[in-house]
């Protein structure tokens, strides 16, 4: 953030109205998307409450070495704000973060941002029909609250006995400690997910020893990485339609994965063969290859893309450990076979709280019901957006909107249509709030769960963060993304209880 932006944001905090039409919590792709669409609709009476110091969400926080997007650059951006200048086929984190900050400037969002405002509680006030939102810097009232906190924002720390006694350096991949010099360190990395496979190759030459603790071997395929040429840049700058066409091609080629994921998981065998070939080519050592061979159907967990992960694991200073960790001691990690490995630094690549969304602990709806209690039998929402008992609250990337195959920005843009339409609806004279009907919410989720039957996520033989503690898939959208786009094209007020309080509607 520039000095001017910081000043603008700070000044707005001191003098701006604390009662607003819309409060957006979170400012990653989805929070920014809502703000941009509000501005386009001529609605300026809103704030963006953000606990961090800038826009960017996950792309601001995940600064670990090698952080990059595994969705191609030309697809991973707002469709209405194309960037013809991506340097690579797959963008590194600093470029995506810079892109989002540019969007913040281009759409004039900085003056609406309240940075360093951590939301600690939000409660629906039935009398005034407003959301009362407590932040680390005071209270806000809003007619509509948009939760855009993102499902991958709260690091998940493993509950391993003794971890709190560890006396070396410890950090999570999403809170990388750049001050800490890893040179020569004996390092333990826990986890072999999308983040670890990106940072492990970047640190392997620096550290003295790297113990990589793998619980489940991921499926990995090669990444068609390359620099985008000057000719491509010029073409996209001059002919935006060419960029649109390439983007559409990438979108549809990825969309085909739904056939294997959701329609006929046997089709995944083809991709599995490609991945095995990649493994054989990159890992000559049979014993290591055996450890790295997945034992579930590809797609059940997120498919990972990497050209340098397997080669990194063949380095002499790397030890891939598949024995279960039973204890962490002040200076070591102990596994079930009794081996104790001395370490200086422990890096957690252990993912995020997804199915137990932390925001459920601080949002209270009608009759004082906590969202976590409304969700005690499982997380669910109507169209991934609305929950009965929580009027005028709309979630971005809520339950069952996640993807394993395509760009989340597509899903976000679908929801933007719906949410903006909903905001306009509750701004109509005579309307104070809308609350989704329990029957509509329930039927939607019955349909989603039915569609999930027989998909790779339920039959693939893995345990993944797509599933909650009861084995229910509350995260993944079960079919083509175009279906979601269709379902969210307009706000469907008939699925909601529409309420009016004449004395309050002009509040
Ligand atoms: P993740 O995919 O959830 O991986 C977490 C890893 O930690 C897994 O290998 C898991 O093992 C392991 N783990 C968790 N708890 C453990 C414990 N108690 N003991 C031992 N191992 C444990 O997390 P992530 O790598 O941070 O990625 C999260 C998501 O972020 C991804 O799925 C993706 O959606 C997104 N992401 C995207 C990109 C991108 O390029 N666009 C890059 C990074 C992340 P199990 O597999 O056995 O559970």
UniProtKB/TrEMBL annotation:
PANTHER family named in the record: FAD_NAD(P)-BINDING DOMAIN-CONTAINING PROTEIN-RELATED, L-ORNITHINE N(5)-MONOOXYGENASE-RELATED
Pfam family for this entry, one: Pyr_redox_3
Annotated Gene3D superfamilies: FAD/NAD(P)-binding domain (3.50.50.60)
Coiled-coil positions: none
Organismal lineage: Bacteria, Bacillati, Actinomycetota, Actinomycetes, Mycobacteriales
Species for this entry: Fodinicola feengrottensis
Annotated protein name in UniProt: NAD(P)/FAD-dependent oxidoreductase
